[in-house]
Amino acid sequence: MTTPASDTSTRLAEWQQAYTDLQSLGLKLDLTRGKPSAEQLDLSDALLALPGAGTVTDADGTDVRNYGGLDGLPQIRRIFAELLDVPVAQLLAGGNASLTLMHDTLAFAMLFGLPGSPRPWSREEKVRFVCPVPGYDRHFALCEAFGIEMVTVPMTADGPDAEAVAALVADDPSIKGMWVVPTYANPDGSVVSREVAERLVSMPAAAPDFRIMWDNAYAVHHLTDVETESAPALALAAEAGNPDRVLLYASTSKITFPGAGVAFMGASPANITWYKKHLAAQSIGPDKINQLRHAQFFGDAEGVRAHMRKHRDVIAPKFEAVDTILRERLGTSSGASWTAPLGGYFVSLDVVPGTAARVVQLAKKAGIALTPAGATFPYGKDPHDANIRLAPTLPPLDEVRVAIDGVATCVLLAAAEKAAA
Ligand code: PMP
């Protein structure tokens, strides 16, 4: 049944008025990036006093002030090896950003090729990556930076659509890799099930050097007391006879201080040897003082888990507020739907197709900054113009409430405009 024109125009007038009211509030709110709030950063302030004057050695007796130790400090690697389910010998601890490790992996692959590569990727006619969508914009930016073509597959509640991936990689040797955020994915919060993980690590791939960039950025970032474990990708890949397929990344960016944390890379012995060979030309060793300070701060893996529960206490109410307000304002008849993640940093909002860019524009004009529409898709192009990533961690709770209420008004106005057009 179509809506009578008068209803459509009445509704449009109503939402236009609500929007004018919203604009008159003169807001200046930011839901663009998944940054921890100041209250979360405060949780790690003890780091600022560590390792403390006079502490110059780690638990193994290494003087952390000096050059060396390309693999990173064993003390911090032991803690994260347990959390990330990687043998300590197969986990490197590096600088402050896992994105750097992902970038350098791709740069080394381009320049030198990976174990199993017939030639450096830059000498291939074409290099393509499978990108589950919606996904993380910086993964797509890395592909663009290296001229890697992106092919999309849909995300499901259990992670990437494994059958779609398997069909793509089976007979196309130009597909050299794929992105996976296995736990609490950015932005839809889904968790890769063991079955999906098994399929991805065991599916036949035409490229002999096919890699899964397993970016476990949110492995320990639970929003409820259900502390979901990530599928043990490296072990599953080894069991499936493809030990070199998985490259795992993680960092303490959203555990302690983004920008001053520690990043990790886990991989098979062959991949680790390969990476270290190229790393050795770049660096004599990482910042071991920062790694030691993190190891002292956490103590052990349980220390990390306990610390993450403090983060949860700060941010879970913000995610609850997003869900409550969207339910109240958008209900079930607005044509919008959204995720209620059990962890991670984002809510993925799907609005009426063809209106996401308009919603972001309306929000901007009302003083609410949102991640650009399309950012969750390769090349910034959402074919349905429907997906918006909401990042509610940074603003204080009362501001989150105001911002999401404002976003709901923009969603309703954009939908009414489309219906009236
Ligand atoms: N991967 C994912 C999936 C992320 O969401 C983020 C942060 N937004 C990163 C990596 C960045 O990690 P890092 O700070 O370690 O570079």
UniProtKB/TrEMBL annotation:
Pfam families reported in the protein's UniProt record: Asp_aminotransf
Keyword annotations: Aminotransferase, Transferase
InterPro entries: AspAT_Ic, PyrdxlP-dep_Trfase, PyrdxlP-dep_Trfase_major, PyrdxlP-dep_Trfase_small
CDD domains attached to this UniProt entry: AAT_like
Keyword Lyase part of the UniProt annotation: no
Entry's Gene Ontology molecular function annotations: transaminase activity
Signal peptide span: none
PANTHER family xref list: AMINOTRANSFERASE, PUTATIVE-RELATED (PTHR43799), ASPARTATE AMINOTRANSFERASE (PTHR43799:SF1)
Name of the featured protein: Aminotransferase class I/II-fold pyridoxal phosphate-dependent enzyme
Organism encoding this protein: Oerskovia paurometabola
